[in-house]
Amino acid sequence: MTTFRIKRYNPEKQPEPYFEEFKVDATEGITVLDCLNDIKWTQDGTLSYRMSCRSAICGSCAVKANGHAILACQRQAEHIADKDDTVTIEPLGNMKPIKDLVVDFKPFWDKIDKVKPYLHNDTPAPEKERTQSPEEFRLIDDASTCIMCGACYSDCNVLEVDDNFLGPAALAKAQRFVGDSRDKSTLERVKELSEPGGIWDCTHCGECVERCPKPAQPFYRIKEVMASALEEGVHNNNGARHALSFTKSVKHSGRLNENQIPVESVGFFNIKGLLELIPIGIRMLLKGKTPPILHRSIKEADDVKRIYRELGE
Amino acid sequence: MKFALFTGCVSKGATRELMVSTMKAADGLGIDFVEMKSASCCGAGVVSEKSPILNDALNARNFAIAEEQGLDLITICSTCQGNLKKSECKIDSDEEYKNKINGVLKEGGHQYQGGKINIKHFAHILSTPEGLELLKSKVKKPLKGLKVAAFYGCYILRPSGLSDFDKPDDPHGMEDIFEAVGATPVYYESRIKCCGFPIVMMNKTASLDMAGNALLDAIQSGADVVVTGCPLCHLSLDAYQPEIRKLKEKGYDIPILHLPQLISLALGHTPKELDMHKHIIGGERIMDKVTA
Ligand code: SF4
Ligand code: SF4
Ligand code: FES
Fold this sequence. Notes:
The structure holds two protein chains of two kinds. By secondary structure, chain A is an alpha+beta fold.
C-alpha cells in the first residue's frame, strides 16, 4: 500500500491547509492520477483536483509530487514514491490555491495574454493560407507543443520572489511568435519582451526545463528570444548590455573581465544604477576581493579572437 | 589521479580564494591538477544568449585542449560544469554541427574529437566511493560538530540529463563529502535552488530575495556554514549578503565557503591560509564550532 499525503484546503471550512493521508494499492503501471481518482471515488468524494484527458494532452492535472510539479496522469506512482512508499501531493506553486489541489490560473493566463499569442500579419492574405517551409516550422515546433499545464510556472525560481515576471510558459509562447516566419511584429515583440519582467529577468535556474512534460522547455525558448532581441538591436536594457559586454570581454582576453561588466551592464549614463554598484565595490575592495585591475588574458587569446572573427562576432 | 583543471574566470577574479583552496585541497589529497592555461571562458550561459555557435566553438576548443593533454577535465564551478556539458551534448549529438565547429577551430590548431575525455565537477570526483575513501584517508582535522548546509548551484543539477548526480532533485554528493570530512550535513529544501546571481544586474530585488530565502532556510535549519560548489553562488550569497533584506531584518549572517575550502580545513589548513578573511562575511572563526 502506498501512502498519499495530500494537502487539503477548504477555506469555507478551515482557513489553514493541512495534510491528510490515504492508502492506495498502487499496482504496477498505475499513474498518480489513477491513485487520486481511486481516493476520490472510493475514499473521499470531497477531494478536489483538475483532470480530463488522462493522456498528458490537456494539461489539466499538474500537481506537485514530493515537492516538484508533474502531470499526475503522466507519471507512475511507483516511480514517484519515496523510500517509505509515500507520495506527498500538493497544489502547484506560485499560484493561489482555491480548494485542495485546484489553484487559480488567472495570473498564468493573464501573462499568456500579455505576450499577444496570435499571429500579427497585416499583409493581404494569400488565396489559400500563409504557408511555412518545414525548416521554418522547426523553429517554432518545440514551443508549439506547450499544453499550458503550468508545471513550469509552479516551480520557477523567479516567480517565487517576483509576481511581475512573465514566467516560463508565457515566454515560451512568445518565442512561438517571435520565431514565426509569418509574423510581422518581431521587433515590437522583442522590445516588449525586453522590458522588466521579461526575458532578461529569467535566472537560468533550469526548473522549467526539468518540469516541462513536453519539448516546449521554456528556458531554451527564452534564450532564443534573447538572441532575437539582440539581433533586432534591442540593446537598451541591462540584460542585453550584460550579454553584449560579457561576450565582448571574452573576445578581448579569452575570459571575463569582472570589473568592466557591471558598469557596462547598468550603462554608462545610468547614474542611479552606477551608484547602486558602489556598496558592493567598496565591500570587495576592503576585503581585497576586487578582481585584478590589470586583467590578464588567457594563453592563445588571439585564437579566441580569431574564432570570434570567423563567426562574424 | 591527474586531471586537466578548467579554472573558469571567477576563480581568477573575484573569488581568487577558490583557486588557492582548490590547489591546497588537491595537494593534500594527492591529486595532480594541470591548469588549462589556454582555455577560454565557458560562456557562462551568457555568450550563448548572443551566439550559440560561438559559445559551442569556444567550448569545443576547450575540450580539444583537454583531449590534447589526454586528461579528464575538472571544473570548480557549477556554472562552468553545466555550460561545458551543454555544449558537449549539443556537439556530440550532431555530427554536421561538430564538423562545422571543427572547421572554425582548424586554423588555431585544435580539433575536437569527442568521446575521449570526461567533464566532471570537483564535487563529482570526490563524491564517488573512491573519492570519499580518499577524503576519509587524508582527513587530519575532522570537522566534528560543524553543521554544514550544501548549496549546489543550478547548473550542476539541471537539466538533469546532463547532471552527474544520480538524483538531481534530491542529490547527496556534497553531503556525502561533508560526512567524509567529519562534518554534519544539514538537509534543507533550498539547497537545490537558484542563488539569484544571473539577474543581479537586471532585477536586484528578486535576485537578493532568492539568495535571502535560501540562506534563511539554511540558517533556520541549523546550519553553521553554507558550502557551495559555484563561485557565482558564492558572490551572490557572500558578497551581496550585507544587502540581503531578508537576513538584515532578522539580524542574521552566515559564512559561505567554497567546497575546496571546507575540504582544506579538514586537511589541516587554517582559515587564514585559505583566505577566508577575504570573504565579505568572514569565516575566520568557523573552527570555533568544531568540537575537538
Ligand atoms: S529558467 Fe528562467 S523561466 Fe525557467 S524556471 Fe528558471 S527562472 Fe523561471
Ligand atoms: S511550457 Fe511545458 S510546463 Fe510550461 S505550461 Fe507549457 S507544457 Fe506545461
Ligand atoms: S489529465 Fe490531461 S494532461 Fe493529465
